[in-house]
Amino acid sequence: MTHERLLEMYPLKRRVLEVAEVERVTPRMIRVHLEGPDLEGLRSDHFADHVKLWFPNEDGDHVLPIVEDDRCLNFRAEGVVFRDYTVRALDTEAGRLSIDFVAHDHGPAGRWAIDAEPGQRLGVLGPRGTAWITGEFDHHVLLVDETALPAAARYIEELPEDAEVHAFFEVADAAEEQELKAPKNARITWLHRNGAEPGSTDLLLEAFRSLELPEGDGFVYAAGEAGTLKPIRRLLKERGFVRNETCEVDGYWRRGTSNLDHHEEDED
């Protein structure tokens, strides 16, 4: 079957949403549920869609996005703090947007999530658009760390009940394993760093290297720390996968870099 990557753009709209509920999914994963009248019209049609969340800065000032003529005018203004986050869930009937945060205190988003309380506000831009690969696949392979776990979890939740799935999720330790809704044939393997620094292991690479791929037309989604994905990209090519047709690789973050633009692909 032939596959291709399609892209649909959405109008850019400024939204200000309010925290309705904060949930500790695991010791290091926080789910924040956002609500508000501005949520009307927000779309998130595919698993990797993301929004830009605008946070208060270190001085306590909260600069919110200014949008005119389908563009944001103050991306680079003084005091602006924003980060990209995957849409974990969008319930249009309930009017609720859910975002998962990795709890850490070395960045504005993680610090905000740790202290988040109902009633607090966030500026929201996006999703600016949505992308998807056409056609059906016989099996699905997911290779992600905890930063991309929200996207991967949504991916498998939206698959048919009889889909064949091989998912490898790298997390800090056993306490970070989550209960996920998954197809009956899904094989989910949790890979524990057990004290190793995030982005410093080859757990995902070795898991994919040791996986005997099923027969048929397969799709691979790999996402996480950009440096760890380089050898995975090379292995994907060796095993016959084609970017934007039968695989997607997304560097969500890079060690030593803040607010990485994950649209910029690393060169192998």
TrEMBL record:
Entries under SUPFAM superfamilies matching the protein: Riboflavin synthase domain-like
Pfam families: FAD_binding_9, SIP
Name under which the protein is recorded: SIP domain-containing protein
Gene Ontology molecular functions: oxidoreductase activity
Residues in FAD-binding FR-type domain copies: 12-134
Gene3D superfamilies found in the cross-reference section: Nucleotide-binding domain of ferredoxin-NADP reductase (FNR) module (3.40.50.80), Translation factors (2.40.30.10)
Organism, as annotated: Nocardiopsis alba
